[in-house]
Specification:
There is one protein chain. The chain is α+β, with helices and mostly antiparallel strands. The chain has two domains: 249 residues, Alpha-Beta Barrel (TIM Barrel), CATH 3.20.20; 82 residues, Immunoglobulin-like, CATH 2.60.40.10. Helix content is 19%, strand content 37%. The chain has eight helices and 20 strands. The strands form two sheets. The chain has an 18-stranded mixed beta sheet that branches. It has a two-stranded antiparallel sheet with strand order 9-10. Strand 18 and strand 19 form a beta hairpin. The longest helix is centred in the last third of the chain and has 14 residues. The radius of gyration is 19 Å and the shape is globular. The two termini are 30 Å apart. 46% of the residues are buried. The mean pLDDT is 95.
């Protein structure tokens, strides 16, 4: 199957909540970064939807919401029809259910936060792991990656050289993702948590401007049909559904463009693609292709089963499992796939 690939940014804030820039500025920055879409997720509001949602000279601007309880449990609500206010919510299940009731896609945002004296507001982890029904989780948050080693001493350097702070998804996050996927499908995305705010004690210094961030972590979605430039709503629905299916991968495109990456397979005459969930039958062949030679890893249930420096690898697998791929370039994570789920057959 041939795919139509589109590249976009998820988890971006504007002045409609606590972002430092206008939607107009975000659109200009996205054009400069050559993105196909941006998903705006302001806190507890859809105010920008009527004015801004739609096509803007080849860029699709999608207005969704970040549900933002004060205790944590932040949740990206994609494709909802009406705002969901849950600032005082102590449990996540009611708003997870409401997102599903509205036909939306729900994604746990920055699941593992931590206290930082400089930025205490970023201590917003997911704490309600007993909740059910979420569709996915942010397995790589740029803001939370950048801030993890931040101190007053390192702040000036990391403001000037933000990529030096980026190491990749937290091992704790990937371990939780792999654990959840053993029992049910949980898709993985990346989020910028872009705010472009000024430092309170240095108001002329902006933290991670949109113009920089939109060139970094991106979600690449794969569609069977092209987006429709005459129908914003149809195109938005296609993006949301690709994310729901897990027909997408993460690319740290600042170090190299990941466009063209493929993780696919074949089993009993069936084609397997990211997000597919099938009963395991006998044997499967999995293939990974990267746009440039990289250190490729194939993992089963979170454990590496192949690691090789190539631009294309193939592996035969003889047992069920949750299979995914990673690629590293220059010692940094470059690409993370969504899994192919080969479940034990009922007769096994």
């Amino acid at each position: 199957m041939s795919w139509f690939e589109y590249t976009g940014a998820l988890h971006v804030h504007s002045r409609y909540s606590d972002g430092g820039g206008t939607v107009e500025r975000i659109i200009k920055a996205a054009h400069k970064a050559q993105l196909d879409f941006v998903i705006l997720t302001d806190h507890e509001t859809l105010k920008g939807r009527d004015r801004w949602q739609g096509w803007h000279d080849g860029l699709l601007l999608v207005v969704d919401e970040e549900i933002s309880p004060w205790i944590g449990n932040h949740y990206l609500a994609l494709g909802i029809k009406n705002e969901i206010r849950a600032k005082m919510a102590l449990r996540a299940q009611p708003f997870i259910d409401e997102v599903r009731r509205q036909g939306g896609v729900g994604i746990i945002a920055h699941p593992f936060g931590e206290k930082k004296g400089l930025f205490p507001v970023l201590d917003r982890p997911w704490i309600d792991w007993d909740a059910v029904g979420f569709d996915g989780m942010e397995i790589w948050s740029y803001m939370y990656d950048w801030i993890k080693d931040l101190t007053l001493l390192t702040l000036p350097y990391y403001l000037l050289h933000p990529s030096e702070a980026i190491d990749g998804p937290r091992p704790q996050t990937l371990a939780k993702w792999d654990e959840l996927n053993l029992s049910r499908k949980v898709i993985g995305v990346c989020g910028l948590d872009a705010h472009a705010k000024k430092l309170p004690f240095l108001p002329f210094v902006e933290i991670l401007p949109y113009e920089y961030l939109l060139r970094t972590l991106r979600n690449h979605i794969l569609l069977e049909e092209p987006l429709d430039p005459t129908s914003p709503q149809r195109s938005i629905s296609a993006i949301h559904e690709a994310i729901r299916r897990g027909s997408c991968f993460i690319g740290y495109d600042l170090i190299a463009d990941s466009t063209g990456f493929l993780f696919k397979g074949e089993m009993a005459g069936m084609e397997l693609n990211m997000g597919d969930e099938r009963p395991f039958v006998g044997r499967a062949t999995l293939r990974v292709k990267t746009p440039a030679p990289a250190r490729i890893r194939v993992l089963r249930n979170g454990e590496p089963i192949l690691e090789r420096v190539e631009s294309e690898v193939e592996i035969g697998v003889n047992s069920p499992g949750v299979y995914r791929a990673e690629a590293y370039l220059g010692g940094k994570p470059w690409i993370l796939s969504n899994p192919i789920y080969l479940r034990p057959s009922r007769s096994a």
